Amino acid sequence: MQKLTRIITLSLALLMISGCSYFGVYKRDLPQGNLVTEAMVEQLRPGMSRQQVVDLMGSPLLEAPFDARQWDYVYRLDEAYGGVEQRRVTLTFQGERLAGIEREGNLSSDIQLPEDQGAGPRVEGTSDTPIEPIENVTPDRP
């Protein structure tokens, strides 16, 4: 009976330990928010209308719910095997015109974004070259 209890205990212990092993987890970069670059911010000028700002920067990520004078453009890149980079540009309006620009983070460094490879996994046996359409061909008839 003791031998059976030891075997069961050892088996359970090995089973529990095997679940705690680390084989490696795939991670990927996680970009979030509005990508803000130095070139975009340099084009902003006090006196621009809200629509001109939207045309240049896109829609803001955050609009202050109780104060419509402030727009925040936030970008955060959580690198898979590295650190976190965060950029923030806060725009303040007086009426419908841009009045103030505040920057936070290093806007001058380039961020390499992965190329869009489409949704879902790549199907085995396919290539990246586009398929050319077949021209209208009429079959030869005798």
UniProtKB/TrEMBL annotation:
Q: Which keywords appear in this protein's UniProt record, sorted alphabetically?
A: Cell outer membrane, Lipoprotein, Membrane, Palmitate, Signal
Among the GO biological process terms of this entry, one is: Gram-negative-bacterium-type cell outer membrane assembly
- Give the residue ranges for region: Disordered: 104-142
Q: Does the keyword Metal-binding apply?
A: no
Q: Which residues form a coiled coil?
A: none
Q: Which InterPro entries match?
A: BamE (IPR026592), BamE-like (IPR037873), BamE_dom (IPR007450)
One annotated GO molecular function is: protein-macromolecule adaptor activity
Segment forming the signal sequence: none
Domain of life from the UniProt record: Bacteria
Q: Where is the Outer membrane protein assembly factor BamE domain?
A: 33-99
**How is it placed in the membrane, per its record?**
Lipid-anchor
The record, for Pfam families, names: BamE
Where does the record say this protein resides?
Cell outer membrane
GO cellular component assignments: Bam protein complex
Identify the main location. Answer: membrane
Q: What does this protein do?
A: Part of the outer membrane protein assembly complex, which is involved in assembly and insertion of beta-barrel proteins into the outer membrane.
Family in the record? Belongs to the BamE family.
Task: State how it assembles.
Answer: Part of the Bam complex.
The protein, known as: Outer membrane protein assembly factor BamE
**Encoding gene (name):** bamE
